[in-house]
Predict the structure of Phosphatidylethanolamine N-methyltransferase.
Amino acid sequence: QVDVAAMVRLFGYVDVTDTGFIVAVLSIAFNPLFWNVVARWEHKTRALSQVFGSPHAACYCLGAVILVLNCVRSHCFTEAMKSQPKLEGWDYHWTYYSGLAISAVGTLFVISSFLALGFTGTFLGDYFGILMEEKVTSFPFSILDNPMYWGSTAIYLGWSLMHASPAGLLLTAVVAISYTIAVLYEG
């Protein structure tokens, strides 16, 4: 038996019909879908490489688009959180600092992943035919698979705790589900 009382209480604080919340869910789901579809299309057609004159230029352009989309997603996430009520029992220093610590660990995973992979390794260069010499197994890949995805999820979880936001926690679950689906698709 699963006790759903906590989930019922959480949903009592979240208006899932709020336009900002819906936009946040859509932006969260869109991002991994977009980059996976575009990367696979490029792999099959080499159309972006032809348009941009080289695989490197095309990969850098896609990477820039992904970064912009991630900024939009983060903005939508934050706005959806701000428009929903806080959970009074969590609006304390210990929750804020716990969230800050979780965000810091997530940031460490995201930045160290980027440094280990480089720009083209991070932004789907393998789909453009830009291959690394060998598989990256150094930190943070030595600790977990897909550290950039889980680091990003941790950042959103920490952000939600810092703002004592039930809506943020629910949106973080959407982030985790989106990345889990992306990992299955990419694998």
